[in-house]
Design goal:
The chain is of the alpha/beta class. It has 13 helices and 24 strands. The strands form 7 sheets. The protein has a 7-stranded mixed β-sheet with strand order 4-3-5-6-7-8-9, with helices on both faces. Strands 10-11-12-15 form a 4-stranded antiparallel β-sheet, with no helix packed on it.
Amino acid sequence: MSSVLSEYERIHRELRDEGYIRSDYLHGDKLWNPKIMTMKREDLDKLKTFRLKRIVKWAWENTPFYRNFWKSKGFDPDMIKDWRDITKIPILRKDELRKDLQANPPFGTIMVPELARRIRFVGATSGSTGLPTFQGWGALELDYFEEAQARYLWTFADVKPTKVYANYLNMSGFYSWGPPLVETAMWRCGATAIAGGGETYFSWKSRHNLIFKLWKVDVLATTPWLHRLIGEEAKAEGWETPFKVLLLHGGAAAENTKKKLFEVHPNAKLAISVWGTTDGHMAIEVPNLPGQLVVWEDMEIFDIVDPKTDEPAAEGERGELIATLLNHFTMPLIRYSLGDYVKNEFLTDPDPTFGITHMRFAEPIPGRVEWMFKVKNNLLLPIYVEDAVNEIPDTTGMFNIFIYDNDMDKLKIRIETRRPRVDNEYDSKAKEILGSRIGLSKDDVDIEWVEPGKTIWTGYKLQVFVDQRKKK
């Protein structure tokens, strides 16, 4: 056995032995892992410093990519004395990663060579902005990811024995939140798991609706838009969805969207936003703290930068989200840009319901940096528009924003309405609602009205941002 593999397996055993990955799955604790979830802040800081030093040293010694990339930027691992020194590490963006993957397929030189033959799961991005980037997950990474999932599923969503959980995320290959979550994290919690897959809902609608009714699904995980569509379908067919907890994945849910979800899912008592990436990053909305998403700090470190300068954003300012996974040794992702646009404000007081000490985002993650657009010099994101669309009477909440220029003179949007005929009064009132909510006049809004089912979707995600700008 190579020394690298030996060390990898030793670290994996250490994480389990020290309780960071809980191994006694079925228990009576209110929190999945109270020892770790309620650690003292000073202990979390020490842990982050230790783990950041360890993963940086590991990457320098074992991955040609980081050694070459960091040397070219003048960075050396000895520069890290404390976890707050993370801002000294050069930012890694997807274009750098993609160059390496293209030159050295399939994983590039970023993966530890000795571990590449032992990966248990291959993840990949959608490739919507170019060549997909692939990730290799080994036994340690999957184990920790499943632990992180179990923490919020058990604690927040009451996913426990006798409960039925349906995963209507992407069940196709290369998606880490699909089969690995259903087949493993659910088993840890002792729940019954249904791997439905949201991408087939449109073609097998009657079959999926029958499953919801027959199995009396307690917890449904999918995008906010598919949640809304399923509820609307149930109402139209004259039955009530059984869901008690709605897990909202794939995009931030506007507050008005949540209100609409409770209207179409009358048995739901809780709607929780779940933010995450295919790479394994995550932040989960804490019940009773709307919009505040907790980060498992034993798992990763976030920092926020000005995307124009790469310098740390000032507290309270918005910027680009940068993330470091502390326990991904097979294919380290260190100071990797996630492309999300967030406010640099975190809360560290224990939450009042569970006493969790890990930090929380002070407000929701509204969207990706590339989803920002301008109309009449007003900087906007789709979530702001979504909140307004849900105030327009007789709409399904489904919409597409068409981006035709870097600074548009009008908001060009397609919206679904249930009205068989749209008159001038309805159209004018809708433009007024939209404009007033996002800082425009009604004359700055151009609405294309369509019947339900005529907006653009990508699988189980509503395509809220349709980029029609000519590529240079």
